[in-house]
């Protein structure tokens, strides 16, 4: 089996960097990735790869059959969308669109998969079929779910599906992955406490939902500390509180709205968080003479890597950078990723590629207005994808 290292892609480094920076300069947010999708489609077609467009509005799927006979099919997925965020970088390829920025590295993810597609199209020495899945709307709107609902795996059946994301804080030239739950589910919740309100000087003549809400905010942390088993992990955070009017601080409001996020790694804990948030809100509200209306919105499920495909991803990463530079037991991450929807339908694995450690300098975290994808890892990511095709389909039948 041929081993592809980043050095073998050195001749493509300048081209990949140009593509990545062009996409970075022109960020497009969820379901609006028309320009990015056109770049992807044009590149794939120019390399002789059959394309399909239109899933989830702007999704692009390229299909490449190996030159050797084989029935196995795999999907390789990259996300394309940017964030609603004002970029603060001042380099010449900074975003030209106000309040839109590639602050999570999807410009790099798209480019790395394009680099692999170009190489594989020129030398399709594998048995079976590869689907290159370029997905819109990962950032909060569930583009993966929409692609699936619109027939992604009906039109392009995959025996396994794989994804990759950059990770600031770990060195370039390294990979990290784990079998089982790797990223958390991401849910949102809201509670509205209702009382009578009244004059701030006479709180005894009404019911005060702000007092109830304050107790609830503290009690929320007790759900994780006292209801979630110590062997599990979960996060409940408050992100929004709204009540009253700034011009009337002497008025006790009649309603308080609290919104937050919930993260967990198992279905049981997810169910527990939903149930206990409502129970705690209702109990505290009743004690304070108020009522509580609770809503829980399930958004992204936990991302769960299959054991077999994780092993294959580790092998491909080791072929790319050496086994000593691959962590197969990385700690779980409380962030979320809508690739989880694809892993609910198909076995597969999601891997993290190092975007640069602390000693490499200038490596800001994702979703920062100063973030930038590390162009030095473009060839590493492309090589990983090609090695994964070799591992999965090199001897497929």
From TrEMBL:
<feature type="binding site">
    <location>
        <position position="104"/>
    </location>
    <ligand>
        <name>Mn(2+)</name>
    </ligand>
</feature>
<dbReference type="InterPro" id="IPR002933">
    <property type="entry name" value="Peptidase_M20"/>
</dbReference>
<dbReference type="InterPro" id="IPR011650">
    <property type="entry name" value="Peptidase_M20_dimer"/>
</dbReference>
<keyword id="KW-0479">Metal-binding</keyword>
<dbReference type="InterPro" id="IPR036264">
    <property type="entry name" value="Bact_exopeptidase_dim_dom"/>
</dbReference>
<feature type="domain" description="Peptidase M20 dimerisation">
    <location>
        <begin position="187"/>
        <end position="281"/>
    </location>
</feature>
<feature type="binding site">
    <location>
        <position position="139"/>
    </location>
    <ligand>
        <name>Mn(2+)</name>
    </ligand>
</feature>
<feature type="binding site">
    <location>
        <position position="367"/>
    </location>
    <ligand>
        <name>Mn(2+)</name>
    </ligand>
</feature>
<dbReference type="Pfam" id="PF01546">
    <property type="entry name" value="Peptidase_M20"/>
</dbReference>
<dbReference type="Pfam" id="PF07687">
    <property type="entry name" value="M20_dimer"/>
</dbReference>
<feature type="binding site">
    <location>
        <position position="106"/>
    </location>
    <ligand>
        <name>Mn(2+)</name>
    </ligand>
</feature>
<protein>
    <submittedName>
        <fullName>Amidohydrolase</fullName>
    </submittedName>
</protein>
<keyword id="KW-0464">Manganese</keyword>
<feature type="binding site">
    <location>
        <position position="165"/>
    </location>
    <ligand>
        <name>Mn(2+)</name>
    </ligand>
</feature>
<keyword id="KW-0378">Hydrolase</keyword>
<dbReference type="GO" id="GO:0019877">
    <property type="term" value="P:diaminopimelate biosynthetic process"/>
</dbReference>
<dbReference type="GO" id="GO:0046872">
    <property type="term" value="F:metal ion binding"/>
</dbReference>
<dbReference type="InterPro" id="IPR017439">
    <property type="entry name" value="Amidohydrolase"/>
</dbReference>
<dbReference type="GO" id="GO:0050118">
    <property type="term" value="F:N-acetyldiaminopimelate deacetylase activity"/>
</dbReference>
